[in-house]
């Protein structure tokens, strides 16, 4: 890939800030608004922040791990960076769009790269009804919450809630309950990527629920509609030998 201008951005962690100073001194660079590619220094949380921040511009982002987890990041190495960028492989993602209606009848929209989750706000368990493409599939579920994860996000919160890890090219989403009490045997569903999932909150005044799309939280929701947004495309860049598809496959064999 041919990138003429590079921007470097970093999280607030000391390790990331020091790397930022070194890279800016070593390589010609411009502001993110002018760049053909952005090199993000940090962990997965910072990668998500960077993707959201420059989503409208659609600039490809190459992450280098200066954080803790680094699942969405490449190995940090200053040597041969220009060559690595030139041979990097793109992964294109479409985020989920959350449309949440709260108890004041206000509507809130947000995009999620990893997942949209609904979570109880108090000691009372949530009561939720789930519709898929307008058909009621779960009339009532008593739980701490539920989430809808993308393949890229399936290795994050979703897997910690015992949801399935999804291959990137599978064109599916994971609908995963969080600490479900009733129905006790339900473990979630794998859905086609182009469905519309509607989650309604039952008895919301007594059992209030919040909705979260990555970093955006809406409190006291009545209902949430979630769809894949094909009008927005995000591009992540990976070293060929450490691409995201391979990482997701490896994640399924970890013990």
Low-confidence stretches: none
CATH architecture of the largest domain: Sandwich
Helix share, percent: 10-25%
Structural class, judged by helices and strands?
alpha+beta
Q: Can you give the mean pLDDT?
A: 93
Count of separate structural domains: 2
The shape is: elongated
What this model shows, in words?
With 255 residues, the protein is of the alpha+beta class. The chain has two domains: 6-93 and 233-251, Rossmann fold, CATH 3.40.50; 96-228, Sandwich (Tumour Suppressor Smad4), CATH 2.60.200.30. 16% of the residues lie in helices and 38% in strands.
List the helices and strands and how they pair.
Blueprint: E1 6-10, H1 14-26, E2 37-42, H2 44-53, E3 61-65, H3 81-87, E4 89-93, E5 96-102, E6 107-112, E7 115-120, E8 126-132, E9 135-143, E10 145-149, H4 157-160, E11 172-178, E12 189-192, E13 197-201, E14 209-213, E15 216-218, E16 221-228, E17 234-238, H5 244-251
Parallel strand pairs: 1-2, 2-3, 3-17
Antiparallel strand pairs: 4-17, 5-6, 5-16, 7-10, 7-14, 8-9, 8-13, 10-11, 11-12, 13-16, 14-15
């Amino acid at each position: 890939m041919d990138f003429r201008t590079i921007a470097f951005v970093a999280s607030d962690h000391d390790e990331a800030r020091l790397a930022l100073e070194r890279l800016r001194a070593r390589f010609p660079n411009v502001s993110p608004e002018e760049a053909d590619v952005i090199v993000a220094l940090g962990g997965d949380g910072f990668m998500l922040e960077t993707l959201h921040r420059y989503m409208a511009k659609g600039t490809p982002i190459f992450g280098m791990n200066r954080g803790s987890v680094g699942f969405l990041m490449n190995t940090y190495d200053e040597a041969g960076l220009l060559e690595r960028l030139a041979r990097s492989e793109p992964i294109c993602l479409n985020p989920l769009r959350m449309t949440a209606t709260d108890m004041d009848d206000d509507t809130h929209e947000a995009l999620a790269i990893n997942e949209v989750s609904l979570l109880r706000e108090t000691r009372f368990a949530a009561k939720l009804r789930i519709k898929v493409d307008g058909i009621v599939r779960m009339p009532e579920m008593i739980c701490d919450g539920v989430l809808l994860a993308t393949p890229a996000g399936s290795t994050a919160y979703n897997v910690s809630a015992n949801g399935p890890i999804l291959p990137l090219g599978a064109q599916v989403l994971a609908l995963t309950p969080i600490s479900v009490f009733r129905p006790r045997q339900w473990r979630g569903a794998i859905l086609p990527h182009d469905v519309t999932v509607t989650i309604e909150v039952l008895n919301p005044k007594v059992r209030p629920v919040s909705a979260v799309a990555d970093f955006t939280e809406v409190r006291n929701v009545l209902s949430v509609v979630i769809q894949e947004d094909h009008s927005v495309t995000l591009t992540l860049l990976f070293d060929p030998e450490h691409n995201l598809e391979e990482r997701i496959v490896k994640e399924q064999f970890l013990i």
